[in-house]
Write a structure and sequence with these properties.
By secondary structure, the protein is of the alpha/beta class. Helix content is 40%, strand content 14%. The protein has two domains: 128 residues, Alpha-Beta Complex (Aspartate Aminotransferase, domain 1); 237 residues, Aspartate Aminotransferase, domain 2 (3-Layer(aba) Sandwich), CATH 3.40.640. The structure holds pyridoxal-5'-phosphate.
């Protein structure tokens, strides 16, 4: 059976060159970067080399880059770190409803510990405006955290404007850039953002590795306590192989960003057009233009997203309904709900996210399979 992977927002396959770059750090170069002998020094060199390459990719200094166990940890480190550091100054945080759970649940935790959080409502496309952020700012606001691009619908937020606003008001600005990192240009010399989260496994790197950019001079309370790793900001022996893999994945993104984006966008748009021709009553969720090249989130009226997923899976096609983290629950996605999508349409949503190695043949196959599935499910639906 064919196997088609259209779920790159959940995770990506590891690039073969990334795996090759990592392997020596599981084998002969297994040293602990904190050790002073040759094994340790080799690992330390690899670690610092990776840091320089990843930092350079976003226009940062190596000293502004901190490796973590992924996007979730980076989000926690940024948000809790600023909250605790600045709690004497104020207790108000601004974020948005369609954020990833790594941000939402972190903010909910802080609410339970005395912070006030404003969850901004996005527009119908899932976009958060700088005006809505401006209106929410109070003299108690210490942090604004707004994602760069949304993981479910791909909509890209105006983070340049929001970052500028935060700076003018002397408020720290964090962005969860896990979805955009490696896909959209990010340059911290031009973008006045203080903290940026990213993750390797969304860009053809390994799971369990990511990082946080912390602008020079931005103070944070530590999330993890222990040894003096990561210049005293993130304790724990570094995941050297993972970090080497992350840096390699970044190198490949740097070389292929433009080419990948064109290829993926072309596949995605062709897929969308052909589905529109062959299936009635399908609706795009997310911004028609200002969204990531790989995202196609569609509502198939009258059918349950979960049923579509299962039927597609039997034909070897992998996608997701809502976000991967909420699959299995019957709740419609919090992102689509925040956008004001009707609950029935929310429950009929499927997120296709295309990636670097997808082909037009795979799109052809999906276009051949999907109309039959939808037709059959609609025939069984009490709603249709
Ligand atoms: C995947 C994802 C995360 C979590 O990153 P992990 O490395 O899986 O912990 C956070 N935010 C967004 C937007 C994501 O897509």
């Amino acid at each position: 059976m064919k196997r088609v992977y259209f779920d790159h927002s959940a995770t990506t396959p590891i690039d073969p060159d990334v795996l090759d770059a990592m392997l020596p750090y599981f084998k002969e170069n297994f040293g602990n970067p904190s050790s002073i002998h040759a094994f340790g020094r080799n690992a330390k060199v690899a670690l610092e080399d990776a840091r320089e390459r990843v930092a350079a990719f976003i226009g940062a200094e190596a000293t502004e880059l901190f490796f973590t166990s992924g996007g979730t940890e980076a989000d926690n480190m940024a948000i809790k770190g600023v909250a605790v550091q600045f709690c004497e100054k104020g207790n108000h945080i601004i974020t948005s409803k369609p954020e990833h759970h790594a941000v939402i649940h972190t903010c909910e935790y802080l609410e339970a510990h005395g912070f006030n959080v404003t969850y901004l409502k996005p527009d119908q496309y899932g976009m958060v405006s700088a005006e809505s952020v401006a209106e929410a700012i109070t003299d108690k606001t210490i942090l604004i955290s707004i994602m760069h691009a949304n993981n479910e619908v791909g909509t890209i937020n105006p983070i340049g404007e929001i970052a500028q606003l935060a700076r003018e008001n002397n408020i720290r600005f964090h962005t969860d850039a896990v979805q955009s990192f490696g896909k959209l240009p990010i340059n911290v010399k031009e973008l006045p953002v203080d903290l940026i989260s990213f993750s390797a496994h969304k860009i053809y790197g390994p799971k369990g590795t990511g990082g946080l950019f912390i602008r020079k001079g931005v103070k944070l309370t530590n999330l993890l306590h222990g040894g003096a790793h990561e210049r005293n900001r993130r304790a724990g022996t570094e995941n050297v192989a993972g970090i080497v893999g992350l840096a390699k994945a970044v190198d490949i993104c740097r070389q292929r960003m433009v080419q990948d984006e064109q290829h993926i966008r072309q596949l995605r748009d062709t897929f969308h057009e052909r589905l529109q021709q062959s299936i009635p009553k399908i609706y795009l969720n997310g911004h028609p233009e200002k969204r990531l090249a790989g995202h196609l989130n569609l509502s198939f009226e009258f059918v349950e997203g979960e049923s579509i997923l299962l039927s597609m899976d039997m034909k070897g096609i992998a996608a997701s309904s809502g976000s991967a983290c909420t699959s299995g629950s019957v709740e419609p996605s919090h992102v689509l709900m925040a956008m004001g999508i009707r609950p029935e349409l929310g429950q009929s949503a499927i997120r296709f996210t295309l990636g670097r190695y997808n082909t037009m043949e795979e799109v052809d196959y999906a276009v051949e399979i999907l109309p039959e599935i939808i037709k059959r499910l609609r025939a069984m639906s009490p709603l249709a």
